[in-house]
Amino acid sequence: MRTEQLEYVTAIARFGSFRSAAEHLHISQPALSETVRNLERELGVDLLDRHRSGARVSAEGRELLPRIVNVLDAVDGLRRAADEHHQTSRMVRVGTVNAGTVRLLTPTIRAFRETHPSTQVEVVGAQEAHIHRALQEGSFDLGLLTCLSNDDMPPELETTRLLSGHAVVCIRPDSRLAQLDAIAVEELLSVPLIVMRAGYLMHRLLHRLLAGRTPPVSYSTDGGEMGKLMVAEGLGATLLPDFSLIGDPLERGGQITWRPLRDDDTEVWLVIRRRRSGSHPLATRNLHAMFVARAHALELARTGAIR
């Protein structure tokens, strides 16, 4: 006995004919008739009275129909329970370029864990291209990335802006550049530079600003978090979005600070992306909503402080 056999019987009882039931079920009338006939043979009961003008539930079928409906309701309940379990207890994988993580990612995941204690969250640092590919393939559920406000957005991914800011120079408080109110590109060329590797937005932006010029000493690293640590250790300066520095533990502890770039007002966004096609599990939808809500609160606090 298969559940679709029971579903077919209830459809015939509901629509009163094989033709209407077959159209509703999107199967052929012969296939529908044969499936129900097999169920009747298995049960040893004629569930339907067949006639030229249609079909109706037999007396025996009327006695069994409530039980059939109860079985289908139980199966639906089992499916809903299993789906809810899948949605709430699975792992959510988040790819990130490691920008804005301290004020946004960490508090959001902490709050998510309080409401979804059975759901694991895996945070993976990666370059933009890898995150996009993983989102499209389904190996990442969400992606946190930086982009410029005038960048083209990938059409196959849904993009929501979380934070906006500008590129700034991250330095140690005892750096001579910290004595300046703003730092020109020429002044950047006078100090060792910590450069993000190709594949990160800050690499692209710095390459554009330098216009082919090279600093006397440079280091290459992956992601803003390592860049901040290298600055704190006195290796040089680096270019990062201001929202990845404000409120950072290293900034709060006085180990790093930042200054704006002179004559450059390029707007940088932190965005969250997910696949446009297909459905997203409940846990993923909830985490996405929590990222958006947390970012909105941070933006309100920032604009309020500016006023």
Explained architecture:
This protein is α/β, with parallel strands linked by helices. It has two domains: 3-88, Arc Repressor Mutant, subunit A (Orthogonal Bundle); 92-306, D-Maltodextrin-Binding Protein, domain 2 (3-Layer(aba) Sandwich). 47% of the residues lie in helices and 21% in strands. The chain contains eleven helices and eleven strands. The strands form two sheets. Strands 3, 4, 5, 6, 7, 8, 9, 10 and 11 form a nine-stranded mixed β-sheet that branches. Strand 7 (193-196), helix 8 (201-210) and strand 8 (218-221) form a beta-alpha-beta unit. Helix 1 (3-15) crosses helix 2 (18-25), helix 1 (3-15) crosses helix 3 (29-43) and helix 1 (3-15) crosses helix 4 (59-89).
Q: Which outline best applies? A: elongated
Briefly note the CATH topology name of the largest domain.
D-Maltodextrin-Binding Protein, domain 2
Please state the second-level CATH architecture of the largest domain: 3-Layer(aba) Sandwich
Secondary-structure element pattern, one letter each? HHHEEHEHEHEEHEHEHEHEEH
Helix content: 40-55%
Provide mean pLDDT, rounded.
Answer: 87
- Percent strand equals 15-25%
Rg over CA atoms? 30 Å
Taking the sheet with the most strands, its summary is: 9 strands, mixed
**Structural class label:** alpha/beta
* The CATH class of the largest domain: Alpha Beta
Which stretches of 5+ consecutive residues score pLDDT under 50? none
Task: Count up the domains.
Answer: 2
What is the number of beta strands?
A: 11
If helices are DSSP runs of H or I spanning 4 or more residues, what is the number of helices? 11
| Amino- and carboxy-terminal Cα gap | 70 Å
